[in-house]
Amino acid sequence: MSKKEIISALVDKYQDDVVCINDTVWGYAEAGMKEYKTAKFYEEFFVEKGFRVESGVADMPTAFVASWGEGHPIVGFLGEFDALPTLSQEAACAVKIPVVEGAYGHGCGHNSLGAGAAGAALAFRDYLEQNRMQGTVRFYGCPGEEYGSGKIYMARAGLYDDLDVCLTWHPGSENKVTTSSSLANISVMFEFHGVSAHAAGNPHLGRSALDACELMNVGVNYLREHIIPEARVHYAYKNAGGIAPNVVHDHAVIHYFIRAPKMSQAQEIYERVKDIAEGAAKMTGTTHEVHLKEAIYDYNPNRTLEKVMQEAFEEIGAPAFDEADFELARKFRATYTKGDLDSVQSGLVRNGYPADAIGPDEVLHTRVLPYVPIDRAMPGSTDVGDASYCAPTAQCSVATEALGTPGHSWQITAQSCSPLASKGAVVAAKVMALTAAMAIEQPELLEKAKAELVRTTGGKYVSAMPPEIMPNIE
């Protein structure tokens, strides 16, 4: 049997487990950093499968590491399992019907992400056992990718430092190795304190925290012209001071995301935003506090590992969808906007893929896109970035949803508990396990991947989160 056939058979042995994880975690649909049922389920699952489990790592109750084996090479598989607010939706249903109105739902497919990573860890463990090979397999239970960014604290605690290979994937609508970086992201709240007063009777005695927020926004708006064009600064009022217009508001809070292609760039903009906040406080006679919430590194692609993953993906192939899957996908596609559908082709061209790699009328992606290294950042951010600064990291996207599916949507929630997601998660498990098996048998490749990591990062990961800031688990 070929390596591909061996790995495929090992994953197939755990197919029922992958589907069970996918659907069980989908049903829990817990908020980031509060995935208590999910973490307990995973921990018990891995103990039953013969792994050692360390719970509550990096000061997070729902973070854990499941390990098997000893010594190098050490291969880590990253799992995520948090859901998104307001995206509750009935499974495999192409009509918007929440299971519970306003509740959380897996609108980014993290239930499938963890399921596929777990399948890969189990299959790769069996591969080492069958071949009497030394090595360590780890599954990282990473909470709060959407909110809380658990991986930044796991990275800060050194939990990825000794990895030879770090692998993950993400559910999506296309089959490809993810070669673009992501934007570094600093999440920060500015809390202003003023003096309350009657807005008509004695406004001269008041000092408006809301005015401070608004003046800060004016300053940041002018700043946008004078930062690099690839950067983004966006905001939301967390507390606008209250609902009474006849009161001078003594308390207001504004929340900023500061994104840039590199962490150093985001940090430079962050310092300028802090100066603006100080200026707004002086202009209004208020005081202010700065609350750093998260600081996520940009994703650092490892081209050496990516090429191995591409080879593995091409060997495994795309998910084998049947006619029932295509019919389900067509139902979902009927709910998408023209912009959603057009984004498939425009995204291909923008990222350098052949324009005909996906036909305009295709409803599910049934091939693997060619390897195209993309030397720019995708618009979003992910805490996988911090892991990728600690260890050589590669990731892929596997089709689990109809082409054109909008991100963070009820349509993703619905498809994340369907045969589309189950089949995609099994393929992802095979791709990652085969990537690991191919990589560890090439010691010179592992050294090359590590040398690339040192070259692209400077060789030392320094967390952007000060040690005194603890994970936000409230």
Which structural category fits the helices and strands? alpha+beta
Strands, total number: 13
Average pLDDT across residues? 97
Helix and strand string, N-terminal first? HHHEEEHEHEEEEHEEEHEHHHHEHHH
Distance between the termini: 51 Å
Number of helices: 14
- How many structural domains? 2
Question: What share of residues are in beta strands?
Answer: 15-25%
Q: What CATH first level of the largest domain would be assigned?
A: Alpha Beta
Shape: globular
In short:
The protein is α+β, with helices and mostly antiparallel strands and 474 residues long. It has helices spanning 3-13, 15-28, 36-48, 110-130, 150-156, 209-223, 263-284, 303-316, 323-333, 338-350, 384-388, 410-415, 419-440, 443-457, and strands spanning 52-55, 64-70, 74-80, 135-142, 165-172, 176-177, 184-193, 197-198, 232-239, 247-248, 251-260, 287-296, 393-399. The protein is globular and about 85 Å long.
Describe the structure.
The chain is an alpha+beta fold and 474 residues long. The protein folds into 2 domains: 3-182 and 298-457, 3-Layer(aba) Sandwich (Aminopeptidase), CATH 3.40.630; 184-296, Alpha-Beta Plaits (2-Layer Sandwich). The chain has 14 helices and 13 strands. Helix 4 runs parallel beside helix 13 (419-440). It is globular and about 85 Å long. The protein starts with a helix and ends in a 17-residue tail after the last helix.
